[in-house]
Write a structure and sequence with these properties.
single chain, alpha/beta, 8 helices, Rossmann fold, about 25% strand, binds adenosine-5'-triphosphate
């Protein structure tokens, strides 16, 4: 089932056609005494080919927002759009297919399958969908990540930085509408972390990829085009061209 994405007011500079959006999104966990409002009427849109960081204190709703936008979690109220789909209107089966075909994921723990080679891990989402990789795209992704001579290695034979690059190649291989990255540099040293962030920026700039990244790290957020700050399930700041200073100042205001 598809639906037209409504026009939403866009804060920040240079709006592009949105590829993901939440409209009056509410997510409640539990009931009665255990009831938690994790997202409290969130409205936001993400332009195609943009790189957004989601920040905020622990428990502010960052992961919940990412999971709802990615179709990993069902919403309580409101609407969520991804590509041509209104996720809340899809059956579980349709949602699984959209997630598999239209979304890429990169996690802090690289989540590679240990018994598969790098090559097999990269093409796994296509295998699961019964699709063959486009050889040109495969070669481009592998070359741009410098993985050409590592394709027959298993994850245990790769460094942390190389494993995370395999995870990014796996996320890129389906040409997804959005890549969701959850603390992608969390398990890397600062040199590998910076290299990874530079690569994510290049994916946005050169491939027009859309990336939404949850992070606690102001330095990581400063690599994005935009930083959203969440607090108590609401978006309280929306910073265009974030710097370490502007992000830290926004977080400091939360304590004031
Ligand atoms: N499955 C769940 N069941 C019940 N409550 C949940 C569940 N998942 C999240 N919550 C609650 O929802 C709120 C938002 O959680 P969320 O994980 O989205 O925050 P976060 O900003 O990602 O936090 P962190 O930075 O610590 O990862 C929190 O109060 C959390 O305890």
């Amino acid at each position: 089932m598809t639906a037209t994405m409504p026009a939403l007011p866009t804060p920040g500079p240079a709006p592009t056609r949105p590829v993901a959006a939440a409209l009056d999104l509410v997510k409640v966990y539990g009931s009665d005494k255990t009831r938690v409002v994790a997202l409290d009427h969130v409205t936001v849109e993400f332009g195609r080919g943009t790189f957004t960081a989601i920040m905020g204190p622990s428990g502010s709703g960052k992961s919940t927002l990412m999971h709802c936008l990615a179709g990993l979690d069902r919403i309580t109220a409101g609407r969520v759009f991804l590509g041509d789909h209104e996720l809340n209107a899809l059956s579980d089966k349709e949602l699984t297919r959209v997630r598999r075909d239209r979304v890429g994921f990169v996690f802090q723990a690289f989540n590679l399958l240990p018994t598969l080679t790098a090559r097999q891990n990269i093409v796994l989402p296509l295998d699961l969908a019964g699709r063959k990789p486009d050889p040109t795209h495969f070669d481009q992704v592998v070359a741009s990540l410098g993985l050409g001579d590592r394709l027959d290695h298993r994850p245990s034979e790769l460094s942390g930085g190389q494993q995370q690059r395999v995870a990014i190649a796996r996320a890129l291989i389906t040409k997804p509408d959005v890549i969701f990255a959850d603390e992608p540099t969390g398990a890397l040293d600062s040199k590998n972390g910076l290299a990874l962030l530079a690569y994510l920026q290049a994916c946005v700039r050169d491939l027009g990829q859309t990336i939404i990244m949850v992070t606690h790290d102001a330095k990581a957020a400063a690599h994005a085009d935009r930083a959203l700050v969440l607090f108590d399930g609401r978006i309280v700041d929306d910073i265009g061209r974030p710097s370490v200073e502007s992000v830290n100042a926004a977080l400091a205001r939360l304590d004031a």
